[in-house]
Amino acid sequence: MDAVKAVMTRRSIRKYKKKDVPKKLIMKLIDAARQAPSAYNDQPWEFIVVKNKETMKKITKYKSKFMLDAPVWIFCGYNKNKSSTEHDLENTALAIENLLITAHAMGLGAVYTGGYDPGDKSLEKAISKALNLPKNVHIVSIVCVGWPDEEPGEKEMRPLSNMTHFETF
Length: 169
Ligand SMILES: Cc1cc2nc3c(=O)[nH]c(=O)nc-3n(C[C@H](O)[C@H](O)[C@H](O)COP(=O)(O)O)c2cc1C
Fold this sequence. Notes:
Blueprint: H1 3-9, H2 23-33, E1 45-50, H3 53-60, E2 72-79, H4 88-105, E3 109-114, H5 122-131, E4 137-146, H6 160-163
Antiparallel strand pairs: 1-2, 2-4, 3-4
Helix pairs in contact: 1-4, 2-4
């Protein structure tokens, strides 16, 4: 699948076949993620791959139950010790988008789920404990990955012309 088609057809997948995702494919997703641009080429990313259902259960107390059916979660975050700017969120979001698009192009399904809530620290604390995270590592998203078992319906989208401005707003 070419890159434009992958971008245009990617959707969030929340239903998965009961089939494992081999480590080789997971490594390919992370390899794609790390090709993303980052401020000053810091590459501050950390990816924690989890297949253990007990770990997943600890986290889904704060998240949606569908996530438990995903064969693999990739916690995507950044390491403050490897970052020289305040652009950690942008850097991490760009890497995640690479991962999502690559997963789709490879026939996998994935969904971005939030890894923290600015108003409530309980999810952040649970993740930190479950993954034994050092203090300098912050999770931005838990990306669920698996073999798709759904085809999402049409997505409502704001018109292109409504969000595009030429020269001035
Ligand atoms: C910052 C962010 C947080 C999101 N959090 C969740 C989430 O917690 N759970 C979930 O099921 N989807 C989550 N999503 C996925 C969005 O719901 C989804 O991307 C959106 O509805 C558009 O659908 P599409 O991905 O199929 O194009 C999140 C997406 C983003 C970018």
